[in-house]
Amino acid sequence: MTVRTPTARPRRAGWPKSRLPMYLVLIVVGLVFVGPLYWLAASALKPTVDIYRYPPIWVPFHLRWANFSDAWHAAPVGRFFVNSVLVSTVATAVELVFATLCAYAFAFLRFPAKRVLFLVLLGAMMVPGNVTLLPNYLTISDLGWVNTYQGLIVPGLGSVFGTFLLRQHMLTLPDAILDAARMDGASHLRTLVKIVLPVSRPMVVTVGIVTLVTKWNDFIWPLIVTNSNNMRTVPVGLLLLKSQEGYNNWGAILAGAVLAVVPVLVVFFFAQRHLVAGLTQGATKG
Amino acid sequence: MDTSTVVSRRSLLGGAGAAALALTTFGCSGKSDSGYGQAKGNVPDKYAKRTRVVLWSAYSGTPGTTLSALAQKFNDSQDEVYVEVQFQGTYDQASQKTAAAVQAKQIPDLVTFSEVTWHRFYLNDLLEPLDGYFTGDFAKSVYQQQLLSEGVLKGKTWWLPFARSTPLFYYNKTLFAKAGLPDRGPADWDEWYGWSKQLKGLQASGKQVKMECYQKVDGDWQFQGSVWQWGGSYSDGLTVTINKPEAVAAAEWQRKLIFDDKMAYMADSPTTDFSNQLVATMVTSTGSLSTAVAAAKKGGWEVGTAFVPAKARQVVPTGGGGLSIMRYATSKRKKAAFAFIKFLADPANAAYWCVKTGYMPAVGEAVNDPQLATLLKANPNYNVAVQQLAKVRKEDEVRLMVPNSNVMIYTGLQKIWSDNAPVQGVFDDVASQLTKATGQVKAQIEKHV
Amino acid sequence: MASLDAATARGTTKGTRGGTTVESTRSGRGRGTPARRRRRYPEYLLFLAFIAPNFLFVLVFAYWPVIYNGYLSLTDWNMLAPTKDLVGLANYRDLFTDPDFLATLRQTVVFVVGVVVGSMVLGLATALLLNQRLVGRRFVRTMAFAPHVLSGAAIGTLWLFIFDPNYGLIRPLLAPLGLTSPPWMTSSRWALPGLIIVYLWKSTGFIAIVYLAGLQNLPRDLYESAALDGAGSWRLFRKITLPLLSPVTFFLFLTTIISAFQAFDVIALMTEGGPGTSTTTLSWFIYQRAFVASDAGHAAAAAMIMFVLLVAMTALQARFLERRVHYR
């Protein structure tokens, strides 16, 4: 492959070599990533016989929307949906408030052991999810919160990465803005709400969306902490759809997967810029 | 959990902030005297004033909707008890959930355990003996004798038969006809093996039709039958015997079918593959009968069933689910839970359950109920399962009693089925794991059995 | 989950850096007149009030579990019995003499190395491709990144179907080449490679995008002068692009290792550690011990081993970063 770095400028667009091979590679790469998602959507709409047919039907003409209602009947997917939306939005909102307060404190307030405290906060990132699983379950049980919204939401409220991103962003704000606020005798809370937050909006949105998507996708914790359909979330529901008396009704299972994937894809396509910014943050600046 | 840990954990929480401590104290309220609360859920307003019974179920699909229908019927048939069915996944997942619930001290009242999983709770003194709940108009004798006896230990009844099954031999009549095979089950595995040769060349969705496939997860249940048919056992009492020649020969037979004859394979879901005519025969639970019959009707072919073939012996294990009441539920809830058990054992309801699902009639009288009687007459497939009851045996003790032993056995089987691993070596490893696990619970078992 | 994992490690990288560089420029602010110093006490309190909610949850749900887990790893407890028996280091001894656990460690290494090397190479190649002025590259970039944000549970479900040797997508794709689809998830030889493929699909797009950002930040004049010297594109790539990308490479290397270590959802949906124990990685082992086998002690011990491994890797990362700061 010809390697041209960085991005070739317009005057190089007419590079003499044929670009055909590169387009072929681009198409293959595109197919690798789009293919499975297309296959998911197509299969979720096929009648049962067609799902199991060989050679396969590449473009389904007989659409069977009933796969979705099958998924719906096998498990109350609608309720799972409501739970997922509720849990991820409330948790994200609360986490954002905590993260913003904390980031502001680390960025603008004085405290003797500030650096150490910040390192303590960052250190929490090293704790793998699987280490916290059992002890957190025991804590939530002690609180009597198994199979409740509190139980689903509370253990995830601590924000480390979000706080970190927000703090880094706040440190880049020009001192002049803050000094002006202080001259006016504005309190810190007022400064935060009236001045820092508005100018940090892009970063807050980024952190919010990354958090939202992470929480929507969360699987193992909701699996462990919920027992009844009125509390389960979409990813957990997927696992339950799968265990049907030794028989895999792929139509319903894949329809369930579509329901889990579509909201995230919608958010992704609309907020791609923010997600990419959030997830690649830190890698390239430095 | 012992008190000292609670205290230390509480104080640490307290150290983390007054708020956390306050939350902890708050969280402790709402539990009963025994310290155990009831699993949370959702009760429709209509039933709000009744005694709520939480049933943790392992049934989805057709059995799931059937159980819900029965619960609904029960709830509407009286005005004191509300049964809330909460689906928890497979039997093993339901058991894991129940263990976690005991830990959280928020327990269900009634659980559908498998023939394996109830023992774990019995050994930890978490189940309620049910004998005292039977009354004049509802005697233990309504249950099929053999199935009832499997839930009895130390002279008390802990687990009542409900969704009981045995492995059944299924075959695709249409494929059999195409291959020129007779329309019946084989007398023994050797005849079956001869038949497998005749399938050669038969294609389904572009592939050679295989003779059978083995179930990846939980296949150790069907294999319990194979071991016996070959004259061996998983264990003799609590002595592990899975690495003895007979059991090894049974697995070697399957290994050879997969890797030498290429007429079998390990499958994620044998029922799915059988339903799509990829395999001509399968040995699986009677509970899959309705699914297979429905799939055959859709696909335009016919299902036949027969006794599982013999080798040295003709014998199959029982299995499936039963009902237990959790000891630490309040006595009011335990009584209410038993009322639902009684309801399920009513011949008409028991027959409805069997007709819908294909599980064996655990209540003797159910066979005489018109709906089941008609079905048994009209569809001989259902009758085979009932007749095969004469050939059943209770499973080997180690698989039943030693926690997690079923996982150890099927993990070993997976190695043989998927990896062509030498059988003796795999079973020696499994045997040493089983022996070690048995050692850890031996004292507990001896005290309780 | 994976997005969080990746995010997690990334934050650590930058934190070390941000903490040293930016902090020093700001610390001057605090030193003022005695009068201003007296005014600080309310500010200290405010600081504590602002960080308290976040710290409370971090301490209770991230740090406390580590401590408690350490205690559990010294006990024998079946999660049903009312008591936990202290057994000292027996659980650790058991693990290191258990052939299944040692196999688990080996499989974890195979999985992590497969995912890390595979996704880095493919990710860089994809980034180089997307850095060309090609029509449609924005679309491909979007689609390549999409799997990274999808739920592991859904991806596992989808790929379980794709890999199905009878009904899946791989079979008709291989058929024209005269190949039959391997049994993938029902084969102990193919299941682990299959899982690696799924993770490559999930994470390559993310790596490509980070590399792409790196590529677009490279100084162009360097290339122009090198090109004038007559260097070919492969030489340019090796002598200029790769070395200049090394910070990005290093960062991606560690984040991918850490997230691959914690891979769970897809394994839970697709293989449950099987067939046999062929896809049991450390993270599945911990879950299986705790929640399937109800063996809290060994689960906790395995979790501590995993924690120590991750801390060691992060420490290593910090060391390397320090060195890098020096020579830059």
TrEMBL record, chain A:
Biological process per Gene Ontology, one example term: transmembrane transport
Keyword Aminoacyl-tRNA synthetase: no
Family statement: Belongs to the binding-protein-dependent transport system permease family.
Sequence ranges assigned to domain ABC transmembrane type-1 in this UniProt record: 81-271
SUPFAM superfamilies: MetI-like (SSF161098)
UniProt keyword annotation of Transcription present: no
Subcellular location field: Cell membrane
Entry's transmembrane regions: 20-41, 85-109, 116-137, 149-166, 192-213, 250-271
Organism of derivation: Rugosimonospora africana
Name of the protein this chain belongs to: Glycerol-3-phosphate ABC transporter permease
Classification via InterPro entries: MetI-like, MetI-like_sf
Top-level division of the source organism's lineage: Bacteria
Xref: Gene3D superfamilies: MetI-like
Annotated GO CC locations: plasma membrane
Keywords: Cell membrane, Membrane, Transmembrane, Transmembrane helix, Transport
Record membrane topology: Multi-pass membrane protein
UniProtKB/TrEMBL annotation, chain B:
Organism: Rugosimonospora africana
One of the Pfam families matching this protein, by short name: SBP_bac_8
Name recorded for this polypeptide: ABC transporter substrate-binding protein
Domain of life according to the entry: Bacteria
PANTHER family for the chain: ABC TRANSPORTER SUBSTRATE-BINDING PROTEIN (PTHR43649:SF30), ARABINOSE-BINDING PROTEIN-RELATED (PTHR43649)
SUPFAM superfamilies: Periplasmic binding protein-like II
TrEMBL record, chain C:
Protein keywords: Cell membrane, Membrane, Transmembrane, Transmembrane helix, Transport
Keyword Transferase: no
Superkingdom to which the source organism belongs: Bacteria
Main location: membrane
Nucleus is among the record's keywords: no
Transmembrane segments: 44-64, 109-130, 142-162, 190-213, 244-264, 299-321
Spans annotated as Disordered: 1-35
Start-end of Low complexity biased regions: 1-27
Pfam families listed in its UniProt record: BPD_transp_1
Annotated membrane topology: Multi-pass membrane protein
A single Gene Ontology CC term: plasma membrane
SUPFAM superfamilies noted in UniProt: MetI-like
Subcellular location: Cell membrane
One annotated GO biological process: transmembrane transport
Domain ABC transmembrane type-1 stretches: 105-317
CDD domains assigned: TM_PBP2
PANTHER family on file: ABC TRANSPORTER PERMEASE PROTEIN, INNER MEMBRANE ABC TRANSPORTER PERMEASE PROTEIN YCJO
Family note: Belongs to the binding-protein-dependent transport system permease family.
Protein name, entry field: Glycerol-3-phosphate ABC transporter permease
Organism: Rugosimonospora africana
